[in-house]
Write a structure and sequence with these properties.
This protein is of the alpha+beta class. The chain is 44% helix and 15% strand. The chain has a 4-stranded antiparallel beta sheet. It has a 4-stranded antiparallel beta sheet with strand order 5-6-7-8. Helix 1 packs across helix 2 and helix 1 packs across helix 5. The model has no long low-confidence stretch (mean pLDDT 96).
C-alpha cells in the first residue's frame, strides 16, 4: 500500500507493544520501521528498465526478512535513541513496526514476494486497494488518539478495527466473485483463470478479469452495501502467447527474458495493446474497470531481441475518465 498507510500500521503495532511512557517514542519508531520495507523502490538500473518492478515488494517484504529488516532499522536509529531506550526495546518496536509491511501489501492485488526465498510466487489476496482512504483514516485517527493519551489499548483497538475492515473487504470480494462466476456461466464461458480485484480507493466497485478460449474478458462489478449487485460489461482482448505472437524470437534473448519477467510480474495477465502492437500490457490494471486502457506496460522491439524492453506508464487522469469512474462507483446507468 502507500507509504503513509504502511507507516501508520507500523505505528499502531509499535504502540500496541509499548509501555505507557514509551508510547510516543514507539510512535515514531514504528512509523519509520513500517515504511522501511519500501526502500526497495530505490533498486533501479538505467541498463535494465524492469529491475525496479521486479524487486519492488520483493525480498524486503518477505516474512523471512522481517528479523533482519527490523535489525537494520534499529541499528540506524540506535545512535539517536540510545539515551532514551534500551536496544532490546528499540528492536522490539522496529520488529513490530516492520513485521506486517509485507503482509499488508499481500492483501492488495499488486503482488508481494511474501515467502521469498522459499517461494518466488507473488502473493496477491485482492482484499483491498493499493490506496484506500477509509483504511488509512482508521489507522490515523486511532494512532493520534493513542499518541495523545499514551494509550496502547487504543492502538490495539485500532488494529482490531483495521482487521474488521479487511474482513469486510474479504466479504466484498466473495460477493464480487460470486457475481463474476454467475456472469461467466450466463455467457456460456468457462473461466480458465479468474481474477476479481477492488478498484482504486473503495470496496464497492470491482474489476473482474477472466480467461476463456484464448481471450481476456474484463467487466466491472458493483457490490453495494444496501443494493443488488450491478454488472457493467467491458472489453475483451486476445491473450499474449509468445510462441504464437513472436514465434521468431529466440527464447534465450534479452527481450524474451524481459517478457517472461513482465509476465511473472503480471501473473500471466498479458496482452498486446490493440492500438500499439509493440506494447504488452498488464491486463489486471486499467484506468477504468470496464476497459483495457492500461496503467502500465512494456514496449518491445522484436527486430532487436538483445535490447531490453522499456517499461512505460499510461495513466489517464482526465476529467472524463474520473467522471466515468464516479458514475460506475455510484451505480449509475451507463449508456455506453
Amino acid at each position: 500500500m502507500d507509504l503513509l498507510t504502511q507507516g501508520l500500521l507500523g505505528t499502531a503495532m509499535a504502540q500496541a507493544g509499548a509501555k505507557q511512557q514509551e508510547i510516543r517514542i514507539a510512535t515514531g519508531v514504528g512509523f519509520l520501521a513500517g515504511i522501511a520495507a519500501d526502500v526497495d523502490i530505490l533498486i533501479q538500473s538505467e541498463n535494465d528498465p524492469l529491475l525496479n518492478i521486479e524487486f519492488h515488494r520483493h525480498f524486503t517484504h518477505s516474512l523471512f526478512f522481517v528479523p533482519l529488516g527490523a535489525l537494520v532499522v534499529a541499528l540506524l536509529l540506535w545512535p539517536f535513541l540510545r539515551k532514551r531506550l534500551p536496544f532490546s526495546r528499540l528492536y522490539l518496536f522496529t520488529f513490530l513496526g516492520y513485521c506486517l509491511s509485507g503482509v499488508l501489501d499481500a492483501f492488495t492485488s499488486y503482488g508481494t514476494n511474501l515467502l521469498w526465498p522459499v517461494s518466488d510466487a507473488r502473493i496477491a489476496l485482492n482484499i483491498i486497494s493499493v490506496l484506500d482512504p477509509a483504511f488509512t483514516l482508521i489507522l490515523l485517527i486511532v494512532g493520534v488518539i493513542a499518541f495523545r493519551r499514551y494509550s496502547r489499548t487504543m492502538a490495539r483497538f485500532g488494529l482490531l478495527l483495521a482487521a474488521v475492515y479487511l474482513s469486510f473487504g474479504w466479504l466484498q470480494l466473495q460477493r464480487a466473485e460470486t457475481v463474476a462466476e454467475s456472469l461467466i456461466a450466463e455467457r456460456g464461458h468457462r473461466a480458465e483463470q479468474l481474477l476479481v480485484k477492488p478498484t482504486l480507493a473503495n470496496l464497492v466497485l470491482w474489476r473482474s478479469i477472466y480467461e476463456f478460449d484464448g481471450k481476456f474478458h474484463v467487466d466491472a462489478i458493483r457490490v453495494g452495501l444496501f443494493s443488488e449487485p450491478r454488472i457493467y460489461p467491458g472489453e475483451s482482448v486476445d491473450k499474449f502467447v509468445l510462441e504464437r505472437d513472436l514465434d521468431g524470437l529466440p527464447g534465450s534473448s534479452v527481450l524474451a527474458q524481459d517478457i517472461a519477467r513482465f509476465s511473472h510480474f503480471s501473473s500471466g495477465f498479458l496482452a498486446v495493446r490493440p492500438e500499439q502492437p509493440n506494447v504488452l500490457v498488464d491486463v489486471r490494471y486499467s484506468n477504468l474497470p470496464t476497459t483495457l486502457a492500461p496503467l502500465w506496460g512494456i514496449e518491445i522491439n522484436p527486430q532487436q531481441p538483445d535490447q531490453h524492453a522499456q517499461y512505460k506508464l499510461y495513466r489517464d487522469s482526465s476529467s472524463a475518465t474520473r467522471e466515468k469512474f464516479l458514475k460506475l462507483l455510484l451505480g449509475e446507468h451507463m449508456l455506453d
